[in-house]
Amino acid sequence: MKRFFTKTGIWLLAAAATIAVVLCVVSALSSGTGLLHNALGVIASPFRAAGSAVAGWVGGISQRFEDVETLQQENDDLRAQVADLRNQIRALGNVNVSAIEEYQEVRERYDALSAQVADVEGSRNELTRMIASLSGQMKEIFTDSFRAINENFGRIFAELFGGGEASLVLDDESDVLSCGIGIQVAPPGKVIKNLEALSGGEQALVAISIYFAILAVNPAPFCILDEIEAALDDANVSRFAQYLRRVSDKTQFIVITHRRGTMEAANVLYGVTMQEDGVSKLLKLDLEQVDATLVS
Fold first, then answer.
1. pTM, to two decimals
2. What contacts 270, CB < 8 A, 6 or more positions away?
């Protein structure tokens, strides 16, 4: 197409040059007057019109040449872009035709999991709020109960030891729910810096004092004690038994013991005997009525 326009343009330029020469001759000859001037004007008029038309057409052809060059450049750029896009598509590999359906399934699953995550987050926040509220209540209840137990511990310790001082100490008062609790005791006539410095009987009596201090805050209907005073000497057993009788109006105590002092403070004794090998018998003794009865 470009070659065609080139050849055609050459012929048109030649025709335009011929017409221009003719117009020049006619113009030179038309400088005269009279009949010849009029005749030449009539003859030259079509040539002038043709020359103007050819000049306009040649200008249009030149503009078209420029447009063709521009289009050719744009066409080359577009071909390069197409080739680049094809290379990119080829680099992607085989096209998964079911990718759209898989995307929809994954999207639905993602939306469902997102809703579950949001629900779990909401539940976690609610639980966090509840835990904070419960922790505050627990801290208040623990502080009140600890204060009451500490007061009872000091009083009961003095009763069982016949004097002295004792207290419970929090290791970290800013975190009462997680910190440890220390025990500070000072038996009569002794300076104790460590509980391990106490004898076995004294350590047992300290534990009994703490137990009764807790029981005094919230008395139980009945309580079972299994040889709790086994490590005590006779004097401390007597103090233990007397204290047990004083608090028996709020709690019924069932005591398993081999100590005489504890038995003397009891209301009713039950003894287990084995008069024959492999045969146990139960003996009941009501100390208030002093009536021994053999229970089968």
1. 0.56
2. 282, 283, 284, 285, 295
Q: Which residue has the tokens 């005073």?
A: 229
- At 245, which amino acid appears? R
What is the pLDDT at residue 129?
Answer: 93
State the alpha helices, DSSP H only, in the chain: 2-29, 35-92, 99-161, 200-217, 234-246, 260-264
Enclosing domain of residue 48 = 2-92
Tell me whether residue 174 is in a domain: no
Number of structural domains found in the chain: 1
Residues of the chain with pLDDT under 70: 1-67, 95, 290-296
Rounded to whole angstroms, the Cα distance separating 170 from 168 reads 7
Distance CA 160, CA 260 (A): 18
Look up residue 258 and give its two tokens: 């081999």
CA-wise closest residue to 204 among 179, 173, 237, 178: 237
Count of C-beta atoms within a 10 Å radius of residue 73: 10
pLDDT at 12: 54
Does the residue 54 lie in any domain? yes
Per-residue pLDDT, 19: 58
